[in-house]
Amino acid sequence: FASQLPHDGGAFYTTDTMESCRQHYAAMWPPLLHAAALWLNANNFHIESDNESPTNRFHLLFGICMEALCNPRMSEPSKNMVVCLKALYTLFEGSEPRKMLMETKSLAIELCNVLHRQLLMTSESVETQQLVMEVLKQVLFAAQDHLEKTKKKTLREMVPANQEALAQQEVELLGEGGVSGELPTESSLVFAMLEECRESC
């Protein structure tokens, strides 16, 4: 690393070098994003030598993906969109990012809406549509994990371990819809996912 520094001292990046590499990073951000998702997923979003919180890392990568999917300039050419979807899929393979996604359910709903509006409604690429459905399945798994953990936590809080059956019926109503079974369209993850499935049929 030392051999790469300027002989006369100073910073590695100067105004000139920043400008010369700007085009490279503008073209290479999709594979860099995918690589970052792979690396962080392999480490379950925990890097020992870094004080940055896993949540911040998740929101950074998730935000870049969402911006790219919503911005036609960033998602052109179409291979950028494909790599971005692969990064999202990789992002949600781990238990930690799935948990982070469901901590704010509106993020999952917005992701479903973006996938529906920006991709399924506009893209004619079979590969893109397949990747959209794969990402949607990851969101589904995240929602299932979250619901199961919520049920177990509620059961532990409600009754002793040997009397769980007594509270089982009440726990089963913890999911969306509750007793009435109604799904508010604007705040329902189930509705957002069904919309996407309907469009893909």
UniProtKB/TrEMBL annotation:
<dbReference type="Pfam" id="PF25468">
    <property type="entry name" value="HEAT_HEATR5A"/>
</dbReference>
<dbReference type="GO" id="GO:0016020">
    <property type="term" value="C:membrane"/>
</dbReference>
<dbReference type="GO" id="GO:0042147">
    <property type="term" value="P:retrograde transport, endosome to Golgi"/>
</dbReference>
<protein>
    <submittedName>
        <fullName>Uncharacterized protein</fullName>
    </submittedName>
</protein>
<dbReference type="InterPro" id="IPR040108">
    <property type="entry name" value="Laa1/Sip1/HEATR5"/>
</dbReference>
<dbReference type="GO" id="GO:0030139">
    <property type="term" value="C:endocytic vesicle"/>
</dbReference>
<dbReference type="GO" id="GO:0005829">
    <property type="term" value="C:cytosol"/>
</dbReference>
<dbReference type="GO" id="GO:0008104">
    <property type="term" value="P:intracellular protein localization"/>
</dbReference>
<dbReference type="GO" id="GO:0005794">
    <property type="term" value="C:Golgi apparatus"/>
</dbReference>
<dbReference type="GO" id="GO:0006897">
    <property type="term" value="P:endocytosis"/>
</dbReference>
